[in-house]
Please model this.
Amino acid sequence: AQKITQTQPGMFVQEKEAVTLDCTYDTSDPSYGLFWYKQPSSGEMIFLIYQGSYDQQNATEGRYSLNFQKARKSANLVISASQLGDSAMYFCAMREGYTGTASKLTFGTGTRLQVTL
Amino acid sequence: DTAVSQTPKYLVTQMGNDKSIKCEQNLGHDTMYWYKQDSKKFLKIMFSYNNKELIINETVPNRFSPKSPDKAHLNLHINSLELGDSAVYFCASSRERTSGSYEQYFGPGTRLTVT
Model:
């Protein structure tokens, strides 16, 4: 079974509008972390936001917020007031376990976001 | 002040050759990783090193051999290159903690093309 599922291969949003990128995950580990990364056309991977499984509040970083619904195993990324520079691939990723050194990230297949005028 | 750097950025080579990709991080992190991103943009972990010790080896062909001379460097050597090795290879690093965010910082990637 897929550990991280991103069902939207592509999304369009108008400039200044908000957009939600979906991510669902599958784990039996009670301790895990969820991450979102942005990959613009230039290719680098940029860390955006993190949510820990025990965090009580949804994470926010500037225009990015994470809509964490633990019971539904979803961790959707919300981008408010979209800008043209937000056009990129967005990856959801999960790390299982909080401690120890085997801290690999498992990535979803990504969502390509296009911001239009 | 590049945090995670990789060289080279582009690598074009022929099948059967041996090549290396170098990675260095100046963040003081103790864990480093290699990921492979295929043509469909799917990212998959290959290796992880913590303080120069191999921690994760994800069913990668043994033609791929990582080497960590110190905790700031993690190199990837690939023997007998095959067409299917063509991909973007990302190095990343993170600091291990007992709680909180473990975000991994990625290098710019090395685009390997095998002809």
